[in-house]
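INPUT
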Amino acid sequence: MKSVLRVPLIFAAISCLAFAFSGMSLSFVANEVITRFVRDGVMVMALIIPIRAGMGVNFSIVVGALCAQVGLILVLDFGLSGLTGLFAMVAIGLSLSLVMGIAIGICLNRVKNREMITTIIIGFVATAIYQLIFMVGYGTVIRPTNQEMMLSRGIGIRNMVDLEMFRGLLDRLWLVKLGSVEIPIFMVLAVLGFGLVIKYLNLTRLGKAFAVVGQSFEKAQALGLDPDMIRIKALVLSTLIACLGHLFYILNIGMLNVYTAHMNTDIFSCAALFAGGATLARAKVRHAMLGIVLFHSLFIVSPQAGQNVFGNPALGEYFRSFVAYGTIAFAIVLNAGTEKKLV
Amino acid sequence: MKHLGVQIPQAVIIVFLAVMTGAAVWLEIPLTWIFSDALVRLAMNGVLVLSLVPMLKAGVGINFGLPIGVVAGLIGMCVSINFGFKGIGGLALAMTFSLPSALALGAGYGAILNRVKGKEEITATFLGFSFVPLMNFFWTVAPFSNPAMLWPIGGKGLRPVIGLKKFFAKSLNDLWLVDIAGVRVPVGFLLFFLLLCILLALFFRTRTGRAMTAVGESEAFARLAGIRIPRIRILAVILSTIIAALGICVYAQSYGFLELYDAPLMMAFPAASAILVGGSMGRHTRMPHVILGTFLFQTTYLISGPIANELMLPEVAEIFRLMITNAIILYALLYEGGKTK
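OUTPUT
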């Protein structure tokens, strides 16, 4: 139990230290953390199910994010707005994620024990295909109906697409002010609700099946389960949640950075999950919740702390990229070590 | 089946290359220029690709932690530049200076990879990724003093891009440059690359080299033969790291610029892709794979640029490169994964 708490405690200690040096006000940091919690919370939870199913971290949640962006761009292209547009983009995103999830699941069944590196590469390939479609395909092969979002040369979508018609649709619902801290109760509840759904899912038949497959294939087969099928299901669910999570993210920001918004979602989500105390063998909703808060507090305060301590904000930036990548490396090394001891 | 699988990426690349060469002829891009540059790019990137071989042979997997070796090379070059060494001697000294850090980093990196057997590739990826921002601290605070490499304003911290023109840029490129029917052949540069390939091939004929191959082929067998597996694996990683350090020195002198900070972050992927195009499948990697793979892969990189510019879509080249690079790695992973089951 102690070792489970070690990583979150280290994160908390560094965050507090960096916060003390940054000289930022507590209410500013709190506001930022709440915003990040709403933005990134669901995405982090997309990682939980594949870890339970023994597939490691699903870095291809990037694909789910891309599906969300495709849904959004199509909705804008057809000029839908308001709740109709919202439903349309969710529908398009989810159906695309379903197909992608199945495809990735089938791929991962071929590469057992090497899933993580494969999902990273799948994310890169998907990014390239996505860029090809929207930077080159649009305006050449695909005829856009909404000319406003195109680049002036007529080929490719603009880098930045404004989401005026969706801004503030949900994220300013039930806004409560505590002093100078603003809490968008509806969105916070939505993220927490998502956590509860996943917690519930883990208690169902399917959730138990994930856990059994994660423990051992033989056991699953003895129980009459088809491990390959269950792994595909785990990946489909993960991709669907990632798609929804990315919609949360984009709609909260209020504009879409067409070619870069999805980048690093996998790294940051994964680092946040591990910061919360998850391991490659055990990931729970509470790890995700705790992790987002800890990881993002560090993220918010470290550039300013770097500026104040070393007189160079870049050092804080380097520090936070190091923390993001380093946490993941550390978690993998640590876990692979314990795995060997068990065998 | 095995031969078919090996040939698919090669076939795709060759068809792609043929189509692009056709397009280049149609767009009146001079072929002699393309061929000259293709030879330069072969030697320029070849050493980095070569650096993957020891780890592949020893069964440690694709060296996605290539940035670690690259950083060691960058340190060596920075030291050499700081002293203001010039010409081919400066390059040789840069390579020498990078050896101690490559040795130390490789040993640490290898020790970590020994802890994570079976998950080397993902661990290596993130070790590489996290090492780059860590080194960014070093580049910012390192006590280098040559003004040519520091920020012009403030004079503290290294520049992200250091011009090598006054130091050892093109010193290997221009060695014994021969003009054959309009094609400029960098004989010295190619010989250097071939020499490294031959040296590595000879290394695998030695006792230690054979032990390394044995570990890659079957650990159980190697253990019975009395080979100390962890030691040999660390040695393979050190060797990979050292060659990677030499590789970036070669690359930088050819490119003419020394790129620090985040530049090494994604360098592992094109190199991995090149060796896979060459027909390397895990443990069965030979020098012709390195040479053929680098040539095919880098030539597609090379031709796609001017063609995309002619078609007025400069971004297409970069997207195509990204797609080809990663699609090849993905194909290899899927193909190999199916085999081990």
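end of record. The two ends of chain B are 15 Å apart (CA to CA).
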